[in-house]
Amino acid sequence: SLILASGGWSPLSSDRYQWLEVDLGGRTRITAVATQGRYGSSDWQTAYLLMFSDTGHNWKQYRQEGSIGAFAGNSNADSVVQHKLQHQVIARYVRLIPLNWNPNGRIGLRLETYGCPYNSDVLSFNGQSSLLYRLTPRPRQMSSESISLKFKTLKNSGILLHAEGQNGHSLTLELEKGKLQLLIRKGKSLSPDIRYLVTLGSLLDDQHWHHVAVEHHSNHLKLTVDKSTEWQKDTHLTAADILVLLYFIVSACLCALSPVQMILGAQQGFSYRSFYGCLENPVYNGLNLVDLAKQKDQRVTVKGNVTFSCSEPVFVAMTFTGPQSFLRLPRRIDQSSLGISVGLQFRTWNKAGLLLTFELPNREGRVWLYLSKARTHLQIHKSGRAPLELNAGSALNDGQWHSVDLISAGGRLTITVDGDEGASAHASPSFLITTGGHIFFGGCPAEENSQECLNPFKAFQGCVRLLTVDNRPLDLIKVQQRLIGNYSHLQIDMCGIIDRCSPSHCEHGGSCSQSWSTFHCNCSGTGYSGATCHSSIYEQSCEAYKHKGNISGYYYIDVDSSGPIKPQLLYCNMTEDNTWMVIHHNNTDLTRVQPSPEVNQHVVHFEYASDEEQLTAIISLSEHCEQEVAYHCRKSRLLTSPEGSPLSWWVGGPGVGQMHTHWGGAPPGSQQCACSLQDNCVDSRYHCNCDADSNEWTNDSGLLTHKETLPVRSLVLGDIRRHGSESTYKVGPLRCHGDKNVWNAAFFDKETSYLHFPTLHGELSADISFLFKTTSSSGVFLENLGIKDFIRIELNSSNEVLFSFDVGNGPLEVSVKAGSPLNDNRWHRIQAERNVKEASLRLDELPAVTQEAPADGHIHLQLNSQLFIGGTASRQKGFRGCIRSLQLNGVTLDLEERAKITPGVQAGCPGHCSSYGSLCQNQGRCVERPTSFSCDCSSSAYTGPFCNKEVSASFKSETSVTYAFKEQMVNELNRSSSASSSFPSSIYSDITLKAENVSLSFRTSQSPALLLYVSSYHREYFAVLLSKPVLTNYLSVGVYLKAHFEGKPFIFCQIDQNPKEDFNLTSGVEFNGIRSLVLGRVHDSEGLDLDLAQIASLGFTGCLSAVLFNSISPLKVALLHPKTSPVTVTGPLIQSICGFTSANLSHATETTHHLSGKRPLVNAIRSDSALIGGVIAVVIFVTVSALAIMARFLYRRKCTCQRQEVKTVKPEDNPELPFRSRITSQNGPTENQKEYFI
Questions:
Q1: Beta carbons within 10 angstroms of residue 441's beta carbon
Q2: Residue spans with biased composition (Polar residues) (predicted)?
């Protein structure tokens, strides 16, 4: 120890290539280091690296959190800075490399290490040796077995451990390409059934010690490699196989046998690859096998040359750390030699990088050997000659050691990758290839004026070893001592490669790829997104899909969002007020019981489309779940026998479930059916209809609604074999509704109020999502603090959200600015995520903003305070408003329950229509609920949860739908009239409508045709017709009115989504005393002129949908509420989807048009105005008694309305209204039909 001593160490030169090395005299368990500046000086280091080694070569850099290499040093010469190592190191040599030092002084330090002696037992294997351990099988099976050891090797393949049992079954721990694989072989055949269970670790051939443990508990296997652990549940193993895995007791071979050596009991000819390296402290169930071998225990057999020390060769490697790294070797001494040969081994993750380059003699050209697309390329440029290029190898960026040899001799040029097992390329250039100067490896010096080295490619990042020039090995230690060549930014006598994909930070099955400095996650097909595939792209429930405007259908549901449960495809039924998640199983049909003569019971098991953990989460998430059960019987009792014991039962609930003897509609434990509770069983002496044992068919059916008993997993029916017994059963799908998370909300009344929850645990990744609404311009939504770390989300201003945190690298901020104020008292959604790679923040539907994490920085978020919601521990300005559906890593915080016991915070938050009212379409009205909203479609021609489902019907020529208006209906239609208007009580009174708004969709091949007809008690009418002149189809709206009214009424026309056109009339009109509205055939044609009466008598053949007259939907009530509405239907009226089909048929040649006549706000039109809204495809005409006003609009195929001259005409004077033209009618739609939406 030099701490507190006088003096200290200070090198002659102060640069990054100096180090202080300490020999501890033997392998030591090192736990901490401390540094101090040089006594009485201005010399101290401010940052440094730590290296460890067992041999004084092949150093390994100590990294904090797996990536951080630098330690913070001193700020003066006297204070002591100690660092406790996060994970202990076992080594003999310690090397400290200063990175930065006092700019006003030099490198200077005193160093102290802390630790204790380390004792170990070591075995060395040379590839032809082995150790076998045998025990006779124990009579009692043990509950667990374990074996642990450490190993080090330079070979990337070989078997560490092999255990065999009876029947030739075996378990093997094998090193394959630097990774450990745990696999099971079953059978003695030459081609046994091999299953790979677990693969862990990477770069394990680095000649450093690695810890391995294999544990077996019950039917689980646990493999641990260094700090990574993985459990494998082997559900395919039988009881006998489990005993085989316990058969480590019988035969365990540590390290591989020689190629001809066999495991006892194995099939002849089955061999293993040898292991070359060292094992340390192999312990099986507490027994040290090396001790047993030293004691020559009869249970241990040593074969071959096994030594009790670790002899290892010395291979000095160097690491090219970045773009500035290079090695320059001097030109060859023997210039008379013809040709050149260069060889090396490298390992890297990069697909591209320069391996070496040199000039040809006399600067006549240049040679480059480089990696591109993970292949080696040799490129030679010589003046006056065509470029020469060779390539060999593939996938050379896999992190494994690869050799490459460049040989030019005897007029032949060869490049070889991975020796005889690899690939090679040849050429015979007509010119000599040798070096005319220095050879540069990895890159070029940074000097701008240097022409000796040119690198048009990327610099190499990776490790190089076994470098030879002209078959002479290069001594890299002399290079390190600057006795040979020159270098910059190299780490010599170590390979600093890191596998950033082991362990993988890619979640949810995302595949990891990497370069030297970073990694990338491919999330394709996982259902998750983000830099680490952390955040789910799916919603957590059908309720969440519904309130994004979706309709019924199959959706992927991710019940725990970013949690471990996989998304599942479920059916969402959104046709009712409640939104149902439907989980089917393998038999939801009514099934007849087929008794078997061998059994007395009928047993059926139900397999659900969801996994067990998904089912459990769905049931827990939902407010209500139910499952229908039904039993149809004839002389087949259900629950109770005459003796009182249960004849049948079902099993349900979480896990394996429990037995239940109640039936649908009855409470658990009652052993009753629904009829017993309703007091209507067929026999009052029994609690179920079927238990009456009747000769007549009857049934017991009902809903199971207690969530703790669901789902139904199996059904056992007992009374099935008596003579004359018959029965059928049905178990419906599991149905759940109500997402307890979506509407869970709290209102923060004051800026000083807050809720607190346990500490957020998101060390490596964390996602936070919630909705908020407020009228405040700023406030903290969420905050959690640590000693130095923190995480916070806040409303920074009225249009900016700020996400900030610190994991030890300094505060990092991500902000999103909205284009409009966020304090508009409407719901806004925030999604924030932080992982080891980046941080992201998304607001509403705006693009996510991301901020990359510092390279090789701290990655663990360490928090220890309570999580504050709506306020802060640091007493900053809290949040005033509502927070809803707050989720941390997919887990919803119950804001409402916590708010009930917290002053200043209220549970729940009303006012959803301000944000979601736009989802109610087609004049639907948003209705507030305590924890949701709904759409009232009573004033809409549509139905469905968002009033977006068309109501359509198919009409025949004899079909007639008549809606009779009553006084209260007229009052509703005229609710926009002035308050001073008064109407007589008689329905025959002179009732006047101030405006008519008509819209409908139709599809027909009939013309002319009457689409809609409205009559009055004053022999006035309103009609929408389809006429057919000689050249073009057109629509007509005819209105026959008596009264004269002051003002300037007008009509406007809108076809599909085309611009609306207005048409002013020359005088005012009123529509008085409306009586009825007719769709289809008009039976009462009194008061109609002959032409219109003729068309009305033909009826309508085709489809009508979404018919709306002001707020009345006659077609909708006729189809859905015929018994409670003043509607009369004659002839066939068949509900159909004809309103949708034409737009979806890709083979049809029809055109679909949307037409609507929408009026301005009535309040903007004074009481002396009369508005007639007509939706016309081609021609609208208005006929007025005494004043015949004509407004004509010509409809072309492009859906344009063309204004014509408005003049007074008589119907017979209008040549474009050929009511007497030939009338055509067909039975149904054809390819030439057109569909119009009015």
A1: 27
A2: 1222-1231
Q: Which of 599, 536, 593, 598 is nearest to 564 (CA)?
A: 536
Question: Which of 615, 625, 919, 621 has its CA nearest to residue 742?
Answer: 621
Whether the bond into 733 is cis, omega within 30 of 0:
no
Q: Quick one: pLDDT at residue 1185?
A: 26
Distance between CA atoms of 154 and 173, rounded to whole angstroms?
Answer: 17
User: ∠227-228-232 over CA atoms, to 5°?
Assistant: 145
Say if residue 96's pLDDT is above 90.
yes
| Residue pair 625/705 in contact by the 8 Å Cβ criterion | yes
In this prediction, residue 191 carries a pLDDT of: 58
Q: Which H or E run contains 675?
A: helix 674-678
Q: Which residues contact 296 (CB under 8 A, 6 or more apart)?
A: none
Q: What is the pLDDT of residues 305-349, one digit of tens each?
A: 888 888 888 889 999 999 999 999 987 655 556 789 999 999 999
3-state class of 483 per DSSP? coil
Q: What does the alpha-carbon distance between residue 1230 and residue 815 come to, in Å, rounded to a whole number?
A: 58
Give the Cα separation of 399 and 421 in Å (integer): 18
Cα of 990 vs its chain's centroid, Å: 64
Reply yes or no on whether the pLDDT at 1048 is more than 50. no
| The two three-digit tokens of residue 1006, written as one number | 């009939």
Number of neighbours of residue 1183 by Cβ within 10 angstroms = 20
Share of the chain above pLDDT 70, in %: 79
Q: Of 957, 953, 946, which Cα lies nearest the Cα of 913?
A: 946
Burial 393-425 (b: 16+ CB within 10 A, else e): beebbebbbbbbbbbbeeeebbbbbbeeebebb
Give the three-class secondary structure for 306: coil
Tell me how far apart the alpha carbons of residues 1003 and 1228 are, in angstroms, rounded to a whole number. Answer: 10
Q: Is the dihedral of CA 755, 757, 760, 766 positive or negative?
A: negative
Choose among 1092, 1086, 954: nearest CA to 1024: 1092
Q: What is the DSSP string of 354-384?
A: EEEEEEPGGG-EEEEEEEETTEEEEEEEETT
Q: How far is residue 623's CA from residue 579's CA, in Å, rounded to a whole number?
A: 11
Within 10 angstroms of residue 884's Cβ, the number of other Cβ atoms is 23
- What would you report as the CA-atom Rg of the chain, rounded to the nearest whole angstrom? 43
Question: What whole-number distance in Å separates Cα of residue 1204 and Cα of residue 1183?
Answer: 16
Q: What is the end-to-end Cα distance of the chain in Å, rounded?
A: 93
d(CA 416, CA 393): 8
Asked, as a colleague might, if the bond just before 1059 is cis with ω within 30 of 0, I would say no
Burial of 593 (0-12, 13-18, 19+ CB in 10 A): buried
Cβ pair 1175, 1155 in contact under 8 A: yes
Residues 6+ apart with CB under 8 A from 986: none
Instruction: Return all residues near 244 (Cβ < 8 A) that are at least 6 apart.
Output: 165, 166, 167, 169, 170, 171
816 close to 843: Cβ distance less than 8 angstroms: yes
What does the alpha-carbon distance between residue 907 and residue 258 come to, in Å, rounded to a whole number?
A: 72
Please provide the size of the chain in residues. Answer: 1238
pLDDT digits (tens, 9 = 90+) for 696-730: 999 999 999 999 999 999 999 988 888 888 999 99
Q: Which two tokens stand for residue 425?
A: 């390329």
3-state secondary structure of 1097: helix
Tell me the pairing of strands 130-134 and 71-72: unpaired
Phi, psi of 613 (to 5 degrees): -70, -30
Q: Is the dihedral of CA 647, 648, 653, 657 positive or negative?
A: positive
Dig out the tokens for 1230 from the structure: 């054809």
pLDDT at 166 over 80: no
Tell me the residue type at 852. E
Helix, strand, coil content of the chain in percent (nearest 5): 10, 40, 50
- Between the alpha carbon of residue 121 and those of residues 209, 277, 1130, the distances in Å are 13, 14, 99
> Which residues have CB under 8 Å from 1186's CB, separation 6+?
1044
